[in-house]
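Entry: Phosphogluconate dehydratase
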Amino acid sequence: MLSLDAWETGLTKPLHETLKRVTDQIIERSRDSRAAYLVKTEAARKTGPGRAHLTCGNLAHAFAASNTDDKDRLAKNDAPNLGIVSAYNDMLSAHQPYEHYPEIIRRAARECGATAQVAGGVPAMCDGVTQGQDGMDLSLFSRDLIAMSSGIALSHNVFDSSVFLGICDKIVPGMVIAAATFGHLPAIFLPAGPMPSGQTNAEKAKVRQDFAKGLVGRKELLKSEMAAYHSAGTCTFYGTANSNQMLMEFMGLQLPGTSFINPDTPLREAVTVAAVKRALEITARGEAYRPVSDVLDEKAFVNGMVGLNATGGSTNLLIHMIAMAKAAGIQLLWDDFEAISEVTPLLARVYPNGLADVNHFHAAGGLGAVIGQLLSGGLLHADSKNVAGDSMELYTREPRLKDDGTAEWVDGAPESLDDRIIREIDNPFQAKGGLKRLAGNLGASVMKVSSVAPERLVIEAPVRIFHDQSIVKAAFQNNEFTTDTVVVVRFQGPKANGMPELHNLTPLLSILQERGLKVALVTDGRMSGASGKVPAAIHVSPEALDGGPIAKLRDGDRVRVDAENGKLEILDPTVLNRDPVTADLSSNYTGMGRELFHAFRATVGSAEFGASIF
C-alpha cells in the first residue's frame, strides 16, 4: 500500500461560497445526464470483468501470446489484469520514454501476483511539429480519435483496471474521455515527466522574434530551437501538455507530485511502479475499489477549473474539459470557468507567464505547494475522491526515493520556496485567475490574461481581416501594420478546418506591441497553450462558417476587446445587419490526411461546447 489514504494535514478551510455555488449549479444542470451515466456505469460494474463471461475461444485469443505464468493467472481468473493504453511513439519527445513502460508495468504487476497487457495504442501527434502546417488541421480532431482508439482497446473487456500512458495536448483529454466512458474501471494516468532544462524560454522567444525581424537566419533559429527542445521529455514551458499534467493531479487521476519528475530517473521509475500497484489495489476485487466514475464527478471538474486559473494554464483546456465532462455526464459552461476565475488568485508564474520553466516550478514547491495554498483558502473541494484516497490534502505530499529503490510520500513544501515562481494565497501575482470569458455582439470567446500587461487588457481599434495565418505573416513582412489594429483571423473554427492553433502569429504580434502599437487578435481558431503577452480573444463562437458575427466584419470596422469587463463587441451595430461573407475552403479538405476527416468536420460541435463529435 502507498499509505496515502488516511493522511491529513488539517490545513483545509471551509469551501469558498462561490465554489459551492458553481458546483451546485453544475450538479443541477447535469442532473439527468449524470444520472443516466451512473446507471450505465453501475450496470457495467455489476456485470464484472468480462473474462468470467468469455467463451474458451475468446479467452484463448486474449492471452495466447502471454507467458506461461501469466496464462495460468488469466485462465484461473483469480487475480486482476491491468490494461495498458499507450500513446508511445519515438518522434514525440514527451512520449519517447514510454517505450519501456509496458515491461516495467508487467513486472510490477507480476510482483503483485497480477497480470498486465498492452490493450492498445493510440495516435499521438505533436503540435510543435505541425504548427503552421497543413497537418495542424487534424490536431483537435485527434482528441476524439484518441478517445475512440482507447475505447477499442478497452472493448476487449478482459481488464479489471487500466493505466493510460499519455501526456501531450490532445492525448490526455482523449484518454480521459475514454476512461470516463469506461467509468466502471479504475484508471490511473502515468506521466513521463519534462525534459531537463535547456536554453531558457526567454532566450528562445527572443531568437524567434529576431528571426521574424530578419535579424538572424534560419540556421541560428534552428540552433536555438534545438537547444530548447533537446532531449526526451515534455517541453518545459507551461503549455497544454504540462497543463494536462496539472489537471490530472487536481482532478485526482495521477498520484500526488508525479507530474514533473524528469524521465529516465530512478524516482520516475519508482513512482511508475507505485502507480501500477495502486491501480491493482483499487479494482473491484479488493476493498479499495475506486472506479473512474467515483473520481470524475462535479467536484473534480471544479477543482480542475481552480487549478487551471491558479496556475495560468492553457486555454485549450476550456475546450477539452467541457468535452471530458460530457463523457462523464457532466455539463460545463464557459460561465463556470469565468465565475471560478473571479475568486481564484493566480499563484504561479511559469513561462510564458513568467521566466521559470516547469522544472523550476517543481523545485520551488510545485503543484503540492499550490494545492496546499488553495486548500488553506477554501478554494478546493478537499473531500474530492481520487486515485490516492479520499482527500485532496494527499496532493500536498510529494514522492521521495527510498534506499530500496521504491517510492514513499513525504510532507511537501508547505509554502513557496521562491516567490518569483509560486506565491502564497494572501500575496498572489493577481487577485483573479488567468482566464477570462469575453462575450458581446461579436460572439463568445476566451482569453488567457495571466501574461497580458494590465494596460493591454482593453484594445479598441479598426480590424484587418484575414482568412489564413500565412497572409497575416505576408502583411507583416510587407510592413502593412503601422497603426493600432485588431487582427481578425476567421474561418479557423472546428467546422471550417479543424480549428488549428495560430501560435506562429505570436512573435509577429509581439513585435508590433514592442513598436508601440495597440494590437489584439480575434479568431474563431485556437492559440497555443503557450499563449503569451498579446491579448487574444480566441475560440470565438459561433464560428464564421456557422454565420457568426465574425463573418460580417470588414476591414476598418472598429472592435473593442475588453478583458477587464469581459466584452467582445463590434462598435457599430449596423454591421450586424450585413450578410455573412463566405470563403472558399476547398483547399482545407485535402492533403496530409485531411480528406479522411470529412465526417469529423461535418459533425463537430461548437468550441463553446467542447468542439466534440460526440
